[in-house]
Amino acid sequence: MSALPEDKRAREFCERLLHWFDGHGRRDLPWSGSQDPYRIWVSEIMLQQTQVATVGDYYKRFIERFPSVTDLASADIDEVLHLWTGLGYYARARNLHKAARIIVDERGGRFPTDIEQMVTLPGIGRSTAGAILAFAYRQRHPILDGNVKRVLARVHRVSGWPGKREVEKRLWDMADAYTPASRVDDYTQAIMDLGAGVCLRRSPRCDLCPVADLCEAQKHGDTESYPERAPRKAKPVKATGMLLIRNERGEVLLQQRPPTGIWGGLWGLPECDAGMTAATRDFESLGLILETGPPAGVVRNSFTHFDLDITPIPARVRASLEAVMDNEKLVWYNPEQPRALGLAAPIKRLIETLS
User: Fold this and answer.
1) How far apart are CA 231 and CA 214, in angstroms?
2) Active-site residue identified among 6, 12, 44, 352
3) Which of 276, 303, 223, 208 minimizes the C-alpha distance to 17?
4) Does residue 44 carry a catalytic annotation?
5) pTM above 0.70, yes or no
6) What CATH number should be reported for the domain holding residue 190?
7) pLDDT at residue 279, as a whole number
8) 67 has a pLDDT exceeding 90
9) What residues have CB less than 8 Å from 349, skipping those under 6 apart?
10) Distance between first and last Cα of the chain
11) Which residue, 168, 194, 225, sits at the end of a domain?
12) In DSSP terms, which residues pair with 315 in a beta bridge?
């Protein structure tokens, strides 16, 4: 079943959801009640593919350091990525920084107030733009994040994987039909809260749901069948070696990664052949002659589209060609007195094994 709701059904859905929100909605989040588009924007970007429980502390630290879009725009990207360390999906941080500079340099620090302009900013799609405009300016725009997709797919027993264009189109039409003209900010938060706290992916709490008797999946007893899962594909496994190079002061050599791709723009460990076991190797590109130790155990990191097996290889500097000091993409990093650099969480953990 996937027909659009009738006006009466849509009104009843909204009334019940808003009544439930008045008594059970989350109002204690760090960004709750704010109409500052900057703070709303930061929270919405952090919440993309990340749970609220994880985001809270990151958001507080980020806003404390960058209280305005001007502060963020003038910051060094390394510091931005440093504050994002552990939150994952680092393209979000890079896009946040790029968008801040656009807002400051091209718009005089003023956020867009219409959705067409909002979605031109890096990292902002239709759903995120709609949420920002609903919360900041009380504009009526539907949203369709993962929580909302799950709620609507169950309410209407929408067949098909939401990643398919035609299925997503049906869900957008439903989201639009349910979005009210008034209290749009409360409704937007309410339907996200319903998906996050009641209409759970596994073991949904239908006994607490204010719209349970309007839900077709609940009536048929197959809520966990919706939304349909993506077609399963075997994820490829990639392998790399990462050199834990230490100098006589105990510092670790870090190399800045390319601006795009895995951990783009972050600082990481120099990579090499995962099977490297020779006692000495010349790394003239790093300006070093190294002596390597036996590789440590493989560490697997899972990404959306592939798994990465990392083989840590300890190494010490036998000789320096001084080029390392002249390369702005290389730094010596003191784990005991860490600099504000952007590090992917797995790299940070590897470095911590040395202390």
Assistant:
1) 28
2) 44
3) 208
4) yes
5) yes
6) 1.10.340.30
7) 43
8) yes
9) none
10) 58
11) 225
12) 245, 292
